[in-house]
Design a protein that fits this description.
The complex is a heterotrimer of chains A (363), B (219) and C (138). Chain A has 363 residues and is of the alpha/beta class. Chain A has helices at 7-13, 18-31, 39-48, 64-71, 76-84, 98-111, 139-147, 157-162, 197-210, 223-226, 230-233, 237-241, 252-255, 318-350, 356-361; strands at residues 53-58, 86-90, 116-121, 124-125, 133-134, 137-138, 150-156, 175-176, 187-190. Chain A has a five-stranded parallel β-sheet, with helices on both faces. A two-stranded antiparallel sheet of chain A has the order 4-8. In chain A, strands 5-6 form a two-stranded antiparallel ribbon. In chain A, strand 5 and strand 6 (137-138) form a beta hairpin. Chain B has helices spanning 3-11, 13-36, 49-59, 65-91, 93-103, 112-135, 137-142, 145-166, 172-189, 197-214. Classes of the chains: A alpha/beta (363), B mainly alpha (219), C alpha+beta (138).
Chain lengths: 363, 219, 138
């Protein structure tokens, strides 16, 4: 596929009919969480879109994000998205390795300077840059160098977006997010551990279709997918509102599919598309499978006070603090009380008694 | 500080700190009162002090008929918001989880719709009580800064809790953080203000009843 | 899973009656049908964007049922188009080449756009036919 072809031309060259193209646009619209009424606009935009160059850097990550993206998708439509982009560098997926691969990356960067899309998954260790390197280049150096010519940066997954599991207490590698290092480029955070695959391709589809970044929330996440909390879209919400909760994983409430708040569900404070878009092509999501939401698309969810502790419970040890407080208070109270008594007794002792003679003396 | 960090701080160190101030303050004040004790009554006992004391703890909850006629408004609204506060605090499922975590005890919850309605009624009663305090010449004259402060720290958890449950205005993590912060404010202010009445009422009612009961009279 | 014995499998019963999405959706379809008669306006409902409880989608599609038309397209993978028992209410399900669902919509229209032959494809078909006939005559 030549880089100068538009997407529309490329699809036609591959023998895809207009009808096929419309199906592609409908699926893309659904993927981007856009209303079906936008399909004509998407068709018009995709018709004229040019193939962006994409460089994908993987740092301190578990490769779950790449797995999420590739595992559930060998489908034609999402595959087309990837045919539509020019994935010039992805060290897990590409065949090349070593200096040849790095040379390819540098060539792509130079050729498309200022216009390529940089996707990053994994966090960056700062405690010692040597903790994570590729071809001898530290993650920090590679990120800083590659970000310079990028049009935009996509932080794929919670590690790149917020630091993720490497950043969890005590953060031995000094892991930070992409946003902590890159300050002068637009960044889209696509958090999740991993993110829902269609969210990943949807963000790419948006960039491909409109050439711009989608609307972002205060944490830099696309509002199309992260604009609603799980709680506000959860099908078990009526149970929460009626106060019907599962107490354990196998009690009556659990079997009836009641709300998982008591089991530590972080749905109320988590923003993601799990409740509507779901996972595995709409099969389900954790709550539907009976497990409370972990809040994996929120910052610091690993240190968020325990996966199985409800949001209304304290994260610190309040019982211990209470015992110490009562103990200290009792001691202080007894001490102060004793002081008060001493003062009173002293005052009683110093109380000068007056008798009739003293009174008459004054006359 | 991001919202998540704020919420974690509020649920963590801030709650521990507030609990320490709360319990330490209450323990100190109660012990100070108890240690000063009462003067020994040198007269011969004509009735039971203990019985009188215990009975008065209960009986003082209900005003005498003549008093009630003059203070019906305060009495009724007072009952309403006190019961409302206890019901919302103790019978809302997420709160029970908090107590379970800290005290190890748990009890059945009331349906969330009931709690929701109770919250509204309590807020209305609290507002009515403030209006009365300001409108009535005597109470207005007697009211000091502390009275208004105590009213504010009491209504804030009810208001912020209602808003947090209904998730309007700010983002849900922020609303929950503000609600917990308002409770922490109440806890920190508690031992230094009239809110101590929650504990001292038992002692003052007992003393009054005991004094009278010792003398063999009804208090 | 051979390692699981039945007593450990927790089955969750669908509580669709409590989540109440089916009736409102049917009403939305009703309004869309009225609009279709009124001014011919098409409506498309993306089923994947709705928080449906387990079992609700089946309930909805069961209720809509199957009418007189069943069409199967093959464009970038199969697509099934069914007219429900309510004329003008179509269910369109897009699959990819691995038979995974990539789109599911309810379309209220006289015919889904995808079933129509597209102008460009017709033009291309005409060219092909012309070439074919030319070659056959020589």
């Amino acid at each position: 596929m030549s880089k100068d072809e538009t997407l529309g031309e490329a699809l036609r060259r591959q023998g895809i009919t207009r009808r096929g193209f419309l199906k592609f646009c409908a699926a893309t619209a659904s993927m981007m969480a856009l209303p079906p009424s936008m399909v004509p606009a998407i068709a018009a935009a995709l018709e004229k879109a040019r193939r962006p160059s994409v460089i994908w850097l993987s740092f301190q990550e578990c490769t779950g994000c790449t797995e999420s993206l590739t595992r559930s998708h060998s489908p034609t439509v999402e595959g087309l998205i990837f045919d539509a982009i020019s994935l010039d560098y992805h060290h897990t997926l590409q065949a090349a390795a070593g200096s040849a691969a790095e040379a390819a990356r540098e060539a792509a960067m130079e050729e498309n300077y200022g216009k390529y899309l940089l996707i990053v998954d994994g966090s960056i260790p700062l405690a010692n840059p040597g903790y994570s390197t590729i071809a001898g280049i530290s993650n920090l150096a590679m990120l800083e160098e590659t970000a310079k010519g990028a049009a935009a940066v996509v932080s794929m997954g919670s590690c790149a977006a917020f630091g993720g599991i490497p950043k969890a207490r005590p953060n031995p590698t000094g892991a930070v997010s992409v946003g902590d290092i890159v300050k002068d480029k637009p960044i889209i955070n696509v958090p999740g551990c991993p993110p829902i695959p269609v969210v990943i391709t949807g963000v790419l589809a948006h960039f491909l279709t409109f050439g711009t970044l989608p609307e972002l929330d205060a944490l830099g996440r696309p509002k199309a997918y992260y604009g609603q909390s799980i709680h506000d879209r959860c099908y078990r919400r009526p149970f929460y509102d009626k106060g019907k909760f599962a107490n354990t994983f196998d009690d009556e409430g659990a079997k009836k599919g009641w709300c998982l708040y008591k089991l530590g569900c972080k749905g109320p404070t988590t923003y993601n598309a799990c409740a509507t878009t779901k996972w595995n092509e709409g099969t389900g999501f954790p709550i539907e499978a009976g497990h409370p939401c972990l809040g994996c698309s929120e910052p610091d969810f690993w240190d968020g006070g325990g996966f199985y502790k409800a949001i209304s419970t304290p994260t610190g040890d309040v019982s211990k603090a209470a015992v110490y407080a009562i103990g200290a208070g009792a001691a202080a109270g007894l001490a102060l009380g004793a002081m008060n008594r001493a003062r009173r007794d002293k005052a009683v002792g110093e109380h000068e008694k007056v008798n009739i003679d003293d009174l008459e003396k004054g006359d | 500080m991001s919202e998540t960090e704020l919420l974690l701080w509020v649920r963590g160190p801030a709650l521990q700190g507030a609990t320490i101030i709360f319990l330490l303050g209450i323990a100190v004040r109660i012990l100070e009162i108890l240690m000063l004790g009462r003067k020994t009554d040198l007269a011969e006992a004509r009735g039971s002090a203990v019985a009188g004391g215990l009975r008065t703890i209960i009986s003082r909850s209900f005003a005498q008929r003549e008093t009630l006629q003059r203070t019906a408004f305060t009495e009724v609204t007072g009952w309403i918001f006190h019961i409302g506060i206890f019901v919302t605090l103790l019978f809302f499922a997420p709160h029970i989880l908090l107590f379970e975590e800290v005290l190890g005890l748990s009890w059945p919850a009331l349906p969330t719709t009931v709690i929701d309605a109770t919250t509204i009624v309590t807020i209305i009663a609290l507002l009515a009580v403030l209006v009365h305090r300001i409108a009535n010449r005597v109470t207005r004259f007697l009211s000091r800064f502390q009275d208004y402060l105590v009213w504010l720290v009491t209504i804030l958890p009810m208001l912020t809790g209602y808003i947090a449950f209904h998730r309007v205005g700010l983002s849900p993590p922020m609303l929950i953080a503000i609600h917990i912060l308002s409770v922490e404010l109440l806890m920190v202010v508690f031992p230094f203000t009239k809110l101590m009445h929650a504990f001292t009422l038992f002692m003052s009612r007992y003393y009054n009843g005991a004094i009278a009961g010792y003398r063999g009279v009804n208090s | 899973m051979s390692c699981m014995n039945d007593t450990h499998v927790i089955k969750v019963e669908a509580a669709a009656s409590l989540t109440h999405n089916v009736q409102p959706l049917l009403h939305e379809i009703r309004h869309a049908l009225a609009r279709l008669l009124d001014d011919g306006g098409h409506t498309v409902i993306d089923l994947r964007s709705l928080p449906l409880a387990p079992g609700e989608e089946e309930l909805l599609l069961d209720e809509l049922g199957q009418g007189e038309v069943y069409a199967r397209l093959h464009a970038l993978g199969p697509t099934e188009v069914v007219e429900t028992r309510y004329a003008g209410v179509w269910v369109v399900v897009h699959f990819n080449n691995d038979n995974e669902v990539i789109g599911k919509t309810i379309e209220i229209c006289d015919i889904p756009e995808l079933l129509r032959s597209q102008q460009e494809d017709i033009r291309q078909g005409l060219e092909q036919l012309q070439t074919q006939l030319l070659e056959a005559s020589t």
